[in-house]
Each structure stands twice: as structure tokens, then as C-alpha cells.
Amino acid sequence: MTAYRIVRWGEPPQLTEVPVPEPGPGEVLVEVTGNGLCHSDLQMARMPAEVAGALGWHLPFTLGHEIAGHVAGWGPGVAGYAEGEPVALVSPASCGECPACRRGHDSACPHGWAGRGYGRDGGLARYVVASAPRAVVRLGALDPVHAAPLTDAGATAHHAVARVRSRLPDGSTAVVIGAGGLGAFAVQMLRALTPAHVVAVDTNPARRDVARTLGAHDVHDAVGAAGDAEVVLDFVGDDDTIAAGVAAVRPYGAFGLVGAEGGTLRRPWFGSLPRDAEVFTFQGSSIADVHAVVDLATRGLIRSDVDLFPLAQVERAYEALAGGELRGRAVVTPDARS
């Protein structure tokens, strides 16, 4: 089968031929219907070899961690699945045994630095394997192509919204900075799960238009125009958005940094941070988040807009992602011949 793989550090990924994986004990074989693309994919090939080695990554490996498809087989010890059943795969890896996992904080699992699409074979191929039932989420009537982005972009946005939900009673305001893939999900979840007035901020007018169609009450091109708020969720994370976002939080509110542009808050803490407020940051999501967003989508409370690309055009898909050309989430669809 054809797979899009990182073969050598410092070189672009490439389409290459690899064997179809065989499911081992406790594993399910999934025929990939759609794999969502992520900005983090663009950074992986540039990662220094020593850093990747410290994370437990091994070359070569297939990219892609937002995966959904249909059950195509299973290994010893797996029962209860039907061939052809639609499923999505939990994006973050976790061991299930450490104290964090036992508390349901699997997003903080110390063994989660390597997983499908980051150091292990992911979903930019026709087939992939995953442990069952921990990493396998049944989709029911949901289309796997549209469900794939829920496993990372959707779940990460949910992780942020769930954290601040209790701070958003009737009459409150929530600001979403960056209305791209994750921010678009956050706008929908804030509307579905809270009575807050939701404001989307993005410099891209097309994304502002999308945010409005997804339920944002107001849209602006700058944080300052949005006024202050009980909650600000920053899905960009550069110097400007962090500074403006923190400044916009009301006392006893919350600022959540989700975007990974590497920004900092270069000010003295006194007088810069909102009084009696919470400032938090995280990467990724939990298994519970994935199940929650699948449930929201099943009930029609959120939707997953996608721009489709065949596997043969995966490089063009990444170019569109990097260039901000997408209206939805880029999803690659391996065809039956790949």
C-alpha cells in the first residue's frame, strides 16, 4: 500500500510503498476512510534527530493522527467488532496504567509522546492498526470522513471548552482567537454547551465568515474590538494574541492558551495578568474528549467541515493548510488502489 512517510530527518516526507500492517493481540485493523491534517505534521520532518530519539520516535513512520475509517480485521483477544463498522481512532497515545491515566487525565500520560502519526505509523495510508477498545471509538451513523478531524482538532477544542464551561453563565462572554480548524470547533461547542455570547476573532475575513455561519454572535479582526470577556481561548498563540488575550480577560475569568505559535507574555506579572483569574495551557486532549465530540456530532450539535484531497495530492493538501487556503479541515482520503 502507499503511505506518506518521514523516511529521514531533515528531508520532506514522501509517498512510498509499505506492507499492509497485520493486527497483533488486542489490535484492530482499520481501513482508513479519511485522515485529517494538522499543522504539527508540518513540523515533524524538521525535528532534530536527537529530540525525536528522546521522545521514543523511530524512522521511518507514516504521518497522520486524525484517523477514521472502517474495521477491516482484528487480532487475537479482540471481540465485539463487525467488519466494515465505522470507527474513529483516539489521537493522543496513552498507556492506561499510570496514575494520570487512572484518574482520567490520559492527556498527561508520560508515555504519550509517541503514537500514531508521531513516531509510529499513522493514517496517511490505506490501513492502520490501533489497540482496542481503548483507542477505538464507534461512530454509528457518522461519516468517517467528517469524523476524522474530531479526534484531534475537535477533541482539543473540547478540552479547552470543558475547562472553562463553568465560568460562562448566562450574560457572560467568551472570545475565541483564531477561527481556523480548532477555533471553529470551539465556537460551535461554546454555543452548544454554554449560554455565553460567543465572539470569534481572526485576521482572515473568510474565517470570520465561517465562524459566523457556525454560530458566533460577533466576529472581529482584532481582540481589542471584541471588548473584555469572562473567557478568552487563544488558538493562535503568538506574542500579539497572548498579550491581547490576557488583557481582555475580566477579573475571575480565564485565559486558555491552546495555539502553538511559540509566543510569550513579555511583561511583569503584576498589573499584566487579570486579577483572580486562571491562566492555563495544554496540548492535546483525552479519550473522554473524543467520545464527547463524537456524541455532540451525532446529536447534530456540531459539524465538521472538510476539504478533501486524495492521497496522491497529500503534498498539495499540506500546502493549502500552510497557506491558510482551507475553508474546513483538510482531510486526505486514500482510495482503494493505494
3D structure, described in words:
With 338 residues, this protein is an alpha/beta fold. The protein folds into two domains: 2-152 and 284-333, Alpha-Beta Complex (Quinone Oxidoreductase, Chain A, domain 1), CATH 3.90.180.10; 155-281, NAD(P)-binding Rossmann-like Domain (Rossmann fold, 3-Layer(aba) Sandwich). Helix content is 25%, strand content 26%. It has helices at 39-44, 49-54, 99-102, 144-147, 153-164, 181-193, 205-213, 239-247, 287-298, 314-322; strands at 2-6, 14-17, 27-36, 61-62, 66-74, 86-89, 115-116, 119-120, 127-131, 136-138, 173-177, 197-201, 218-220, 229-234, 249-257, 278-281, 306-310, 329-333. The strands form four sheets. Strands 3, 5, 6, 9, 10, 17 and 18 form a seven-stranded mixed sheet that branches. Strands 13-12-11-14-15-16 form a six-stranded parallel sheet, with helices on both faces.
> What CATH architecture of the largest domain would you give?
Alpha-Beta Complex
Mean pLDDT: 94
Q: Count the DSSP helices.
A: 10
Number of strands: 18
**Unreliable sequence segments:** none
Rg is: 20 Å
What is the structural class?
alpha/beta
Largest sheet properties: 7 strands, mixed
Compute the number of structural domains.
2
CATH superfamily of the largest domain: Medium-chain alcohol dehydrogenases, catalytic domain
Tell me the helix content: 10-25%
CATH level 1 class label of the largest domain: Alpha Beta
CATH-defined fold name of the largest domain: Quinone Oxidoreductase, Chain A, domain 1
What is the element string, with H for helices and E for strands?
Answer: EEEHHEEEHEEEEHHEHEHEEHEEHEHE
Bulk shape = globular
